Amino acid sequence: MQKDATLDARGLMCPMPIVQLAKKVKELKSGQVLELLADDVGAKEDVPAWCSRTGNQLVGTEEEGKILKFYIKIK
Amino acid sequence: MADKMCMVVSEGTFDKAYMPLIMGTTAASMGTEVHVFYTFFGTGLLKKTAKPKLPGMFRLFTGMFQKKMKAVGIPSHDEMVKQAMDLGVNFYACTTTMGLMGIKESDLKPGVKVLGAASFLKLANESNVTLFIG
Q: The domain B4-133: what is its CATH number?
């Protein structure tokens, strides 16, 4: 999937992937797509919850083994 | 208007120290305005010198626990309070407890505000979520 930036949150556990995600999103422009890599199982539910609360759009998810990939379009 | 969330912290052990920080940083990351009110044994967590330990016999394992948390990206208590403040989380020390326990405003971490019960309840009344950590 096309992306403008990547945030590698592998190895981090709740709440750090979400905290880092919120910080990273502030650096990006509206319409850009951020790829988030995580391996905390909590992220599977947490990232969609974060997106729905903040109004950023989750445009895709992928799983490669234990790695979760999220594609988030910045509002 | 942004959503608002309040927490009351009444215990000063390691677990009670981290719960509001984890919830608070997450809520702030989700665009929620967060207020955390520390009272009774929780108030000591806001002192510059605070080094919370796990409860009871588990206190002996605090260092090991801290190391495991560091490995998954969760910083020290002091550092996490700073990060939470950077995200806009508000920290308040209960004025009555400060008086009872002899805690001075100058003993508190920079950025911590002092608050009475009525002011906190006003914030809680305006909040969508209020949690009690005790």
A: 3.40.1260.10
Distance between CA atoms of B80 and A55, rounded to whole angstroms?
A: 26
Question: How far does the CA of residue A28 sit from the closest CA of chain B (Å)?
Answer: 15
Structure tokens at B5: 């969330």
DSSP per-residue string spanning B26-53: HHHHTT-EEEEEE-GGGGGGGBTT----
Q: What is the complex's ipTM, to 2 decimals?
A: 0.88
The answer to whether the pTM exceeds 0.90 is yes
A14 is annotated as an active-site residue: yes
Structural domain range at position A11: 5-73
Place of tokens 């990206």: B73
Reported as half-sphere exposure (CB side, CA atoms, 13 A), residue B26 has a value of 19
Instruction: Tell me which chain B residues have a C-beta less than 8 angstroms from the C-beta of A14.
Output: 22, 26
